Amino acid sequence: RVSTNKVPTDVVNLSGITALGTGYRHTCAVAGGQRYCWGDNGMGKLGNEEAGGESFAPVPVVGRKGSPPPVVPPTPKPVVSARATFSISAKAVKVDAKRRALVVTLRCPAGGSSCAVTLPSKVTVRIGGSSYRLKVSGPKTIPTGRSGSVRVTLTTTAARRLRGRKASVKVRVVVRAPGGTTTRTVKVSIKR
After folding, report:
1. What is the tens place of the pLDDT at every residue in 116-153?
2. Max Cα–Cα distance, the chain, nearest Å
3. Which is nearest to 127 in space by CA: 151, 103, 156?
4. Whole-angstrom distance, CA of residue 127 vs CA of residue 105
5. Are 26 and 44 in contact (CB under 8 A)?
6. What residues contact 186, with CB distance under 8 A and at least 6 apart?
């Protein structure tokens, strides 16, 4: 009898599987350039020139005259890659005790390679009629499936000037993800 076990079990004496297919009460695989099948051999489903019976171990599939049929490697599926995502706060972002404010959170899509991030070193912001240069910090790379934050740091003078006011900060962010490059100018309002 063919196993009716509903829990997956290891296939013995078969490794390096590059393709796998299942049928009614039998399974076939390609390993090391050769086709193998196991399970119910009713009507010769296992391709071993015999009909009937069953095999719990993989048996090589042979051609009609005893020679193995050619193996066609599986066609690789195209990799679908997503672009990085940007999470921006809709509200004014409060500057913390270290004079930093969150500008944007970036997320690198899972399943590909890491994302490369390009940021300016500084941006100019106007606060109360005066211009200030704020330091921009963030990750240079973000591992796949992870997030990274981009922040601005105010000078002591800019932080004092911001008290009781709001200022608009614009940061140009470039993220190279497996699905393509995304460039955005992120605009947030900061307050103290």
Report:
1. 999 999 999 999 999 999 999 999 999 988 899 999 99
2. 90
3. 156
4. 24
5. no
6. 86, 88, 103, 104, 150, 170, 171, 172, 173
